[in-house]
């Protein structure tokens, strides 16, 4: 398992470097606080020397006043140092979360491959938080260093032996603490991986709770989660044991070191090498050193966990794209293969062509769709339909052949422009948390008269107007995450309305009516035909009602186009087509 690899270090440096101002401010104020803390025992020693040994009351009062002023200064510096460090920490975590979300949602995809949504959520929350905490750890480390330096200088003033003891012993303690953090770093990375996996499985099970209950699979699901959660618990306990072992050993070493400083100071005072005030200062400084050295132990823990989390974040940010993003849309270069694709979409005609396409189960698929044509694709094997949708939405590229839009290969076009020109509405598209209307207008915008008119037409065509009338607050009825508050048929119609309201030049719809009754299906089919007339539309479905409203239907069987023609003619003349759509 990689630990603190270059990409992980890069994530750490960018997270901290992006908050350079707050980190610097926090470190400067923290150094002022630690300097004041280190001066307190020194000032107490001077006050004792002047007031007790010398018997000077004015001297005692003066140094007590100085001590009070130092306390006020270190109190304010601590407050504002902590504020700046915490601000740097949470801001760095926020920027990392935004970067992770941007990478996961990037058009080229690839970041979510092999990861459950819950795993990605865990990385964007817990791991980002741990990396952000490194900014605070850096502030604390710099402040603690200042405290140690001031303490060493003060002890050198008291005794050369005591000063050298601190100057030489502190780096040794820090090096030992770093070595002790290595096991914690490894186990912390494993802990986060197992925790993310458990979160992902839990979210997955909750999302499919209805299905699990319907098939009586709750015991198997509970057993699966118990096993994965047990693995996460074991990893967490191992990390906790490593942290406890590290903290215990560091505390023991620190205590031994402090006792050694106090012992040496006491012997020097017994021999008369230092005075009473110096002894008070030396003992006070020895006790003060517990604070910075304990903070360094905490810093080592935070750095170990931050490095492990940074490596996990780097894996997602550096994940290879599922498809190349293509040239930038601002290039607008005209190739020999056909006219350019205008990023504004005003020039998109909507001509689709698949030339000798092979991908997954698809083999040498040839399909031409004219601009403005409504074509039905019947696919008895769902794997064929899924592969076709992936190619048209360019979530995958063909292993052979080409998919063209207006005569240009999709791989030669800007990926964002392709996604804006071709909308693939999946069968299981999720709804968002919000209202029914907000879900419908998610891709269409709202407010403009044209958008309002189109939204109403899309809702009528998809049957969503009927859904809204049955809901308590109509189109303003709240929808829970993934649309779980709606029935399956209601979710399908709202998702279809959203796709229709987007009004893209090319619309690919996959089985939009599997959860509605036959009467509603006929109405929806007619609505799609009327609303999309003159706009290129592919209906990937085995529904006779939907195929009947198309200009042309094709049969995608065994990975190939085996029949094409009008729906009614194919029903009467093509037995495989008839079997696919009527049984």
UniProtKB/TrEMBL annotation:
InterPro entries: ABC1_TM_dom, ABC1_TM_sf, ABC_transporter-like_ATP-bd, ABC_transporter-like_CS, P-loop_NTPase, Type_1_exporter. Pfam families: ABC_membrane, ABC_tran. It is a multi-pass membrane protein. Residues 345-583 form the ABC transporter domain. Keywords: Membrane, Transmembrane, Transmembrane helix. PROSITE patterns: ABC_TM1F, ABC_TRANSPORTER_1, ABC_TRANSPORTER_2. The chain crosses the membrane at residues 60-78, 131-154, 160-180, 248-270, 276-299. Residues 319-343 are annotated as: Disordered. The keyword Amino-acid biosynthesis does not apply. The keyword Nucleotide-binding does not apply. This is ABC transporter transmembrane domain-containing protein. It comes from Streptomyces heilongjiangensis. The lineage of its organism: Bacteria, Bacillati, Actinomycetota, Actinomycetes, Kitasatosporales.
């Amino acid at each position: 398992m990689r630990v603190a690899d270059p990409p992980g270090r890069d994530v750490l440096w960018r997270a901290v470097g992006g908050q350079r101002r707050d980190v610097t401010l926090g470190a400067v104020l923290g150094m002022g606080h630690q300097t004041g803390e280190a001066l307190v025992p020194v000032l107490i020693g001077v006050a004792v020397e002047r007031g007790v040994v010398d018997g000077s009351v004015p001297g005692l009062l003066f140094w007590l006043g100085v001590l009070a002023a130092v306390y006020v200064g270190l109190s304010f510096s601590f407050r504002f140092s902590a504020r700046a460090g915490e601000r740097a920490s949470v801001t760095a975590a926020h920027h990392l979360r935004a970067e992770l979300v941007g990478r996961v949602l990037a058009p080229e995809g690839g970041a979510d491959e092999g990861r459950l949504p819950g795993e990605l959520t865990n990385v964007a929350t817990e791991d980002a938080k741990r990396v952000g905490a490194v900014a605070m750890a850096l502030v604390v480390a710099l402040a603690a260093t200042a405290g140690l330096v001031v303490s060493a200088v003060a002890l050198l003033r008291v005794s050369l032996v005591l000063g050298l003891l601190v100057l030489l012993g502190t780096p040794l303690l820090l090096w030992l603490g770093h070595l002790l953090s290595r096991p914690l770093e490894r186990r912390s990375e494993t802990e986060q991986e197992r925790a993310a996996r458990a979160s992902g499985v839990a979210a997955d099970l909750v999302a499919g709770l209805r299905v699990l209950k319907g098939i009586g699979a709750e015991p198997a699901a509970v057993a699966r989660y118990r096993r994965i959660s047990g693995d996460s618990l074991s990893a967490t306990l191992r990390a906790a044991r490593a942290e406890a072992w590290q903290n215990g050993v560091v505390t023991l070493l620190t205590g031994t070191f402090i006792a050694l400083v106090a012992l040496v100071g006491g012997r020097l005072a017994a021999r008369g090498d230092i005075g009473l005030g110096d002894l008070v200062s030396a003992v006070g400084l020895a006790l003060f050193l517990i604070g910075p050295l304990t903070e360094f132990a905490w810093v080592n823990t935070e750095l170990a966990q931050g490095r492990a989390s940074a490596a996990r974040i780097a894996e997602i940010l550096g994940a290879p794209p599922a498809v190349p993003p293509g040239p930038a849309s601002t290039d607008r270069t005209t190739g020999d293969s056909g006219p350019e694709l205008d990023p504004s979409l005003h020039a998109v005609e909507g001509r689709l062509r698949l030339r000798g396409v092979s991908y997954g189960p698809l083999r040498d698929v040839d399909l031409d769709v004219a601009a403005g044509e409504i074509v039905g694709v019947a696919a008895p094997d769902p794997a064929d339909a899924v592969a076709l949708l992936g190619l048209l939405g360019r979530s995958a590229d063909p292993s052979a052949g080409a998919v063209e839009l207006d005569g240009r290969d999709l791989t030669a076009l800007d990926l964002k422009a392709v996604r804006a020109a071709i909308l693939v509405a999946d069968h299981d598209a999720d709804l968002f948390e919000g209202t029914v209307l907000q879900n419908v207008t998610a891709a269409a915008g709202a407010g403009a008269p044209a958008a309002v008119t189109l939204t109403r037409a899309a809702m009528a065509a998809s049957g969503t107007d009927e859904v809204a009338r049955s809901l308590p607050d109509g189109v303003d009825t709240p929808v829970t995450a993934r649309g779980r508050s709606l029935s399956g048929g209601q979710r399908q119609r709202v998702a279809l309305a959203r796709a229709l309201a987007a009004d893209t030049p090319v619309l690919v719809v996959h089985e939009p009516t599997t959860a509605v009754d036959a009467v509603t299906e006929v109405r929806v089919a007619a609505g799609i035909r009327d609303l999309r007339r003159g706009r290129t539309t592919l209906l990937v479905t085995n529904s006779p009602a939907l195929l009947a409203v198309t200009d042309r239907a094709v049969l995608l069987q065994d990975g190939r186009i085996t029949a094409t023609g009008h729906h009614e003619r194919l029903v009467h003349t093509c037995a495989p087509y008839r079997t696919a759509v009527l049984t």
